[in-house]
Design a protein that fits this description.
Layout (H helix, E strand, L loop, with lengths): L1 H17 L3 E2 L2 H5 L6 E9 L4 H14 L4 E8 L7 E8 L1
Parallel strand pairs: 1-3
Antiparallel strand pairs: 2-4, 3-4
Amino acid sequence: MKKITIALLAALLLSANATAAIQVDGRQARNMDDVQSLGVIYINHNFTTESEATEAINAEADARDARYYHVMLTREPGSNGNMHVSADIYR
């Protein structure tokens, strides 16, 4: 019984990781003919690093059931600390 429980927990963990959205680069995004565009995500937030912004885009893509995302723009306008990030998402 203990082995079955461990196997079930391992399967659940692996399946949770399998649903995470995958970041693609511009070339890959242009060549993705077999996917459906779900639109664009825009996030304006006070991120301290670009990797935090990418993590937020990844989380939002996962929340919208996207399989792939392509970060189009990451910029920090002015000196207020807000970083604007946008990404295409695909299923």
